[in-house]
Input
Amino acid sequence: MLNTEPCVECGDVPELLDEDLTCGPCRIRIHLGATVLEMQTVTVRFEIEEVVSCDVVAELEVPADMVDDDEALLAWLEENDDAWVDEIDPLSQQVAERTITAMYGADV
Ligand SMILES: [Zn+2]
Output
């Protein structure tokens, strides 16, 4: 049978009411410490580093003896990134990792 009683915390009538007469969201909130964080709008300045990944398809002039050697080819590509860096399609780049590298604080 579905619940018809309101939650004692928020007054909603959930489908399921807990034994303590609270709904799911309120129960979670209470379990998380019942503290409502006081929020404030500030200007925060910090620096981030993004690691992006994307597939590159490029027609390149590479040393012929490396064509069948993926490892040698990879090393050559890393050494000669100016040969293919223009082939990167910015739209295909996806941020794989975002790290905050410096924190300059908040202006209140
Ligand atoms: Zn509730």
In short: Residues 70-79 form the longest helix (10 residues). The chain has two helices and two strands. The pocket of zinc ion is lined by residues 7, 9-10, 12, 22-23, 25-26 (CB under 6 Å).
